[in-house]
Automatic annotation (TrEMBL), chain A:
This is Cbb3-type cytochrome c oxidase subunit I. Residues 556-832 form the Heme-copper oxidase subunit III family profile domain. It is found in: Membrane. SUPFAM superfamilies: Cytochrome c oxidase subunit I-like, Cytochrome c oxidase subunit III-like. Coiled coil: none annotated. Its main location: membrane. It is a multi-pass membrane protein. The chain crosses the membrane at residues 23-44, 65-88, 108-135, 147-170, 190-215, 248-264, 276-297, 309-331, 343-367, 379-400, 412-435, 450-471, 567-588, 608-626, 654-677, 697-716, 723-741, 770-793, 813-831. It comes from the Archaea.
TrEMBL record, chain B:
Belongs to the cytochrome c oxidase subunit 2 family. It is a multi-pass membrane protein. NCBIfam families: CoxB. It comes from Halorubrum yunnanense. Residues 230-266 are annotated as: Disordered. This is Cytochrome c oxidase subunit II. It comes from the Archaea. The chain crosses the membrane at residues 23-44, 80-105. It is found in: Membrane. Residues 235-244 have a biased composition (Polar residues).
From TrEMBL, chain C:
It comes from Halorubrum yunnanense. It is a multi-pass membrane protein. This is Cytochrome C oxidase subunit IV family protein. It comes from the Archaea. Its main location: membrane. It is found in: Cell membrane. The chain crosses the membrane at residues 6-27, 39-58, 70-90. The keyword Magnesium does not apply. GO terms for cellular component: plasma membrane. Keywords: Cell membrane, Membrane, Transmembrane, Transmembrane helix.
């Protein structure tokens, strides 16, 4: 199944893996969530009209506030930006598609279904009401007991799994498929901003995934991390903001990229100090991980660390200064065209300047002490995050002609901008004036009523302005003027060099910048072999943008056409959604009544719906996973490409390493939690819960399994089917032995020692929770590895992998990583 | 009984509100100034260099589709670094200045174990409980004497709250399992100016559940002698903990709604 | 991989087994009388060595583009940062 149905067919949109289709899907879905979050915002504003208003109950108001924040930050801002990134990054860097088209589709479908789960959570006894920052311990079931609260948190978890896939995909694409001659410093600024964004995402979202897995376990399985008085609440603060501060730039950078792009196109000038802007962007990406505790100035963290974080916070504002000045100076001496996209980008700059200046206020700790929890913060981050997103609204108008081939209506566009800009400042500037109002409070000091009323009017104006845009774009799509390939006078980037909309495979011939500007070159393709680059006289070139390492020639299917269609990303995401839906109600429908032994324990199921969904989801995941693995889907690697700094690393291997790097942070979050809590509780007051000997035996088992995986790789290289089967078989066997010892140990802990996930007969319950959750997550990794190993074993039996042993090698990378995690888990829980 | 040590005007302590107002004013003035200059400069240039349909300037070098950004020369960046340097100086000096005052706010005026009053503030869904040195506890209202440094140890019994009074410019996270500290003092002049009793609104600044909006309280500062009289009447007796008034008249307009405080089902 | 020698892989494997046993000995062998701090420090050193062996040889990072090593080092550094800074903040 490789050919795509036409765009008019619904099926096309379910099976497509093409980056442009998926970009469109992202954008439309994100705009839907803009409406969703926007309606919630208007509900909040209505409540604020009068300090005595009770349109919503206290709980419903908190739900609205929480869902508004979560939807706008997660389900609108980033996916909206990644709609553009999907569509335009491959075009801007001269690639045919993203590196892993099916993975790209799975990211989108996980995003969509996670949004569906969030929507469902409203009907599961009310969605989460703990604020988008979900401060502990309000985020645990004792204080937010509804099933929907768990549903919302699992929805976010699912969203982040999708984000991780997307991050790995973009990193691999940008580092593996840039057109020949496009060095990393030559990339267009929008692509640069996306590159910096995905680097931050790789680590920041991994830490959040770790935090959410812990929270999910607190809510579904009954561990007690975030309600623990041994620092549980502060732990959430650390994990959340370790992610949360980079997240600010993750949201802002794509918008900045759009600004940088649009300022150049509509002034006819090249970016001033381009190199320094790129350096600033990289600096900010690094520094974003060094400032997180400025969100925690009023907690009990010590003065030394506060001072340090204040210094780094000021440090991070400096590169932004440089970028802002660069944007301003780029306009000077240009020929500025006040088109709708430019107006939005320019408006975004003005809003960001205001957001930036008010942010400096927050950097001073004394001021922050007072601004904490007030509308000053609310106003500031709306100016920064939504102010930035204003540039993305400009990007819609900018790229609309490219995506649809039609021109939008300029007058309506400008009208949209005027009303938008007025409404924006009315709603958010009034927040500065009413800044003493506490956040998320509707019974506020009547002194500030006039400002809040002004803000409410502004909010409706702002909301209304988007309907002008929807009308404009809808009307133009149906009956707009034809836009042509390049409607702008001073555009530079490659998406304007192809027709509007671009053809499915993007380029007529291979794009190359080898001569210093974009050219399309024809490659000579001998039968069945890899393409060979030729110079003008038809001679075979000897050097390329990359050392064409031997891995290129390992691809066996040179005569094959790239595949575009697969239903499995959709099906797999659906299965995961069903499973997570089931998990959301697990704690409320399944009770385990412990007896003397495992056999005497009872499992009471009060509601069949949720457990059934879990089983159906797991079954679906296994089925679709196998279908995915056996599907004949071909995504050729770019043969001649710039790959700095990952020259010579094969595509899937590169992706695998990026994934492992993010997984380091997932475990990093869990291990940090273990050490933070234990340190807070008094390190030496805890003794290991477990006997060291089973741990040592399991260490031997796991190390041996790593050895057999290496043997498997050697056997595959030597084309020994027997050897491959034997070593894979031993690996599987050892994996099961590991799990069996683990089960024995847990059984022993629960029934002989009275240590369960939420209770500890020998000490702090949190110690038991940490032990089960950390080793449990490791166990899940082993289990997933086993599933893949069994899949590989069966496929080997059917005769695969002897020509191409890469799947064995990449599975090995994962398996060894799981082994390394155990190297640290073992001493931490069995010896220390 | 605690010996009063009068914090006279002219001695070297400053209320938190005073420190805050000073820094806020400096930041606001400079922020407005810098913002206005930058925005005005930008707007003026955007107008000046608009495309009016006329002939392009001689040095105007239009970009083309498919060009690489490197090797195109590109505009000079000298002015960029000048502006950057200036803004860096402004920002860094602002923060160094603010940091000096932070140390004061953290430490407060000299602590004096004799005269300082230690109050344990415990947040709960949805109100505040105050425990005085003699063990007396009240809910909703904190009564303190003028001219004493009051040290608050803030914690929580359930979820994360944030104890704050905007008028006093004090704020502190109330986190279960943790105790954070904050201090304040009200001078007797202020109490006199407000008619013998100064009242300050207390609010919760961290979302803590469905009663968050209504989680309000009050700090009342009394003249030294009146407070002592009241304090002795409590006699370390915590039984009347629900009796918030405790012999002190509460100004009705101060918007402390006892029905709302603690009246919301947890 | 420039080196597919079974001998080398076996040697690494044996070294890993020995290292794991050493971990155990540090804490459990009473006759050696290590202090807790010594045992903890020693264990961390051993864990680091084991990790380096696995990464360098079993995941053959030794023979890969050095940039992959830097990516993993960055991930590790961020983990250490989170762990150390969070723990330090409450000390």
């Amino acid at each position: 199944m490789s050919e795509l149905p036409p765009t008019t067919s619904v099926k096309r949109w379910l099976v497509t893996t093409n980056h442009k289709d998926i970009g469109i899907l992202y954008t439309i879905t994100a705009l839907f969530f803009l409406l969703f979050g926007g309606v919630l915002a208007l509900l909040i504003r209505v409540q604020l009209w009068d300090p005595a208003n009770q349109v919503l109950s206290g709980l419903a108001y908190n739900e609205a506030v929480t869902a508004h924040g979560l939807i706008m930050v997660f389900w609108f801002l980033s996916p909206f930006a990644f709609g553009f990134a999907n569509y335009f990054v491959p075009l801007q860097i001269g690639a045919d598609d993203l590196a892993f088209p099916r993975l790209n589709a799975v990211s989108y479908w996980l995003y969509l279904f996670s949004g569906v789960l969030l929507g469902i959570s409203f009907f599961q006894g009310g969605t989460l009401s703990a604020g988008w920052t979900m401060y502990a311990p309000l985020n645990v079931p004792m204080y937010t007991p509804s099933i929907g609260s768990t549903g919302a948190i699992l929805a976010l978890t699912m969203f982040i799994i999708g984000v991780t896939a997307s991050t790995v995909n973009f990193l691999t694409s940008i580092h593996h498929s840039r057109a020949e001659g496009m060095g990393i410093m030559d990339m267009p600024m929008f692509s640069w901003s996306i590159l910096a964004t995905v680097w931050m995402m790789l680590f920041a979202f991994a830490a959040l995934l770790g935090a959410l897995l812990i929270l999910g376990s607190d809510r579904v399985l009954g561990s007690v991390y975030f309600s623990a008085t041994e620092g549980g609440a502060l732990l959430w603060g650390h994990l959340w903001w370790f992610f949360g501060h980079p997240e600010v730039y993750i949201v802002f950078f794509p918008a900045l990229g759009a600004m940088l792009e649009l300022f150049q196109t509509f002034s006819g000038r090249r970016l001033v100090g381009r190199k320094w802007v790129i350096i600033s962007i990289c600096l900010i990406a690094v520094q974003s991980f060094l400032v997180w505790m400025h969100h925690m100035f009023l907690t009990t963290i010590n003065l030394e660390i506060k001072t340090l974080m204040m210094a780094t916070t000021i440090g991070i504002s400096l590169p932004f200064d440089l970028i802002v000045f660069s944007l301003i100076y780029t306009l000077i001496k240009g020929r500025i065209q006040f088109t709708t996209p430019f107006l939005f980008a320019f408006g975004a700059l003005l809003l960001f300047i205001l957001g930036g200046i008010t942010g400096v206020f927050l950097g001073a700790i004394v001021l922050d002490y007072e601004f904490r929890g007030t509308y000053w913060v609310v106003a500031h981050f709306h100016y920064v995050m939504f102010g930035g997103a204003t540039a993305l609204v400009g990007a819609i108008y900018y790229w609309f002609p490219k995506v649809t081939g039609k021109m939008y209506d300029e007058f309506l566009g400008k009208l949209h901008f005027a009303i938008f800009f007025l409404g924006f400042n009315a709603v958010y500037f009034s927040m500065f004036l009413a800044w003493e109002t506490p956040r998320r409070v509707f019974e506020y000091n009547p002194e500030f009523q006039i400002y809040h009323q002004f803000g409410t009017i502004g909010a409706f104006v702002l909301g209304f302005s988007f309907f002008i845009m929807f009308y404009n774009l809808g009307k133009s799509y149906v009956s707009g003027e034809s836009a042509g390939a390049n409607p702008w006078d001073y555009s530079r980037t490659a998406e304007w060099a192809v027709s509007s909309p671009p053809p499915l495979e993007n380029w007529p011939d291979r794009p190359s910048y080898a001569s210093g500007k974009l050219e399309f070159v024809k490659d000579y393709v001998p039968d069945g072999g890899p393409a060979v680059k030729t110079d003008e006289d038809g001679n075979v070139a000897t050097d390329g943008g990359d050392t064409h390492s031997s891995h290129i020639s390992r691809y066996a299917h040179w005569d094959k056409h790239p595949s575009h269609a697969s239903i499995w990303p959709f099906a797999l995401s659906l299965a995961l959604g069903v499973m997570l839906f089931g998990l959301s109600g697990f704690a409320n429908s399944v009770t385990v009544e412990l007896g003397e032994t495992a056999l005497q324990s009872d499992v009471v199921i009060s509601n069949l719906l949720y457990p059934t969904a879990i089983l159906a989801g797991i079954g679906g995941l296994l089925y679709t996973g196998v279908k995915w693995g056996t599907e004949d889907f071909y995504a050729p690697p770019t043969e001649f490409a710039e790959r700095w700094p990952f020259n010579g690393v094969e595509k899937v291997k590169l992706g695998m390493w990026f994934f492992l790097a993010s997984d380091v942070l997932v475990f990093g979050a869990l291990l940090s939690a273990a050490i933070f809590i234990r340190y807070n509780a008094g390190w030496m007051t805890w003794e290991p819960l477990t006997d060291p000997l089973p741990g040592l035996i399991n260490t031997f088992v796991l190390l041996t399994s790593s050895f057999t995986v290496i043997l498997a790789l050697v056997a595959a290289r030597r084309k020994s089917r027997q050897g491959l089967l034997a070593s894979l078989g031993s690996t599987i066997l050892l994996g099961f032995v590991f799990m069996a010892i683990k089960m024995w140990e847990w059984n022993h802990e629960v029934f002989d020692k009275g240590v369960t996930i939420s209770a500890n007969a020998h000490g702090d319950p949190i110690q038991a929770s940490i032990y089960y959750v950390t080793t449990g997550l490791h166990g899940i990794h082993v289990l997933l590895g086993l599933v893949v190993a069994i899949f590989l074993f069966v496929r080997t039996y059917q005769g695969h992998y002897l020509d191409d042993e890469r799947p064995i090698e990449y599975f090995g990378l994962y398996w060894h990583f799981v082994d390394i995690v155990w190297v640290f888990v073992f001493p931490l829980f069995y010896l220390f | 009984m605690i010996d009063p040590i009068i914090l006279q005007r002219g001695s070297d302590w400053r209320a938190q509100a005073e420190v805050f107002d000073e820094i806020f004013f400096v930041f606001l003035a400079l922020g407005t100034l810098v913002g206005t200059i930058v925005v005005a400069y930008t707007l003026w240039n955007v107008y000046k260099y608009r495309d009016d349909g006329g002939e392009p300037r001689e040095d105007f070098d239009a970009p083309t589709v498919g060009e690489l950004p490197t090797g195109q020369g590109g505009p000079k960046a000298k002015k960029l670094f000048l502006s950057f340097g200036l803004s860096a100086i402004v920002v860094i000096s602002l923060v160094v200045y603010a940091y000096g005052l932070l140390l004061y706010v953290e430490e407060g005026p000299d602590a004096n174990e004799e005269s300082d009053i230690e109050i344990l503030v415990t947040g709960y869904q949805f109100g505040w409980e105050y425990e005085y040195p003699n063990g007396h506890t009240t809910r909703g209202e904190l009564v303190v004497p003028a001219d004493h440094r009051v040290n608050l140890d803030v914690t929580s019994t359930d979820v994360w709250h944030n104890f704050g009074s905007s008028e006093l410019r004090i704020k502190s996270d109330a986190i279960p399992g943790e105790t954070s500290e904050v201090w304040f003092a009200v001078s007797s002049e202020t109490v006199e100016e407000q008619g013998g009793e100064a009242t300050y609104r207390v609010e919760c600044f961290e979302l803590c559940g469905q009663g968050h909006s209504a989680m309000k309280g009050q700090i009342t500062a009394l003249p030294q002698d009146e407070w002592e009289e009241w304090y002795e009447s409590t006699g370390g007796d915590s039984e009347n903990s629900s009796n918030v008034e405790g012999g002190v008249s509460v100004d009705d307009t101060a918007s402390v709604s006892h029905a709302a405080v603690g009246g919301v089902p947890a | 991989m420039s080196d597919d020698s079974l001998k080398l892989y076996t040697a690494i494997y044996v070294a890993l087994l020995v290292a794991a046993t050493l971990n155990f000995v540090l804490f459990e062998a009473t006759f050696l009388e290590f202090t807790y701090a010594q045992a903890l420090g020693g264990t961390l050193v051993i864990a680091t060595v084991k990790t380096l062996l696995i990464v360098a040889y079993f995941q053959h990072l030794r023979w890969e583009n050095r940039s992959l090593t830097y990516v993993m080092a960055l991930a590790l550094a961020l983990t250490m940062l989170l762990m150390a800074a969070a723990t330090y903040s409450i000390s």
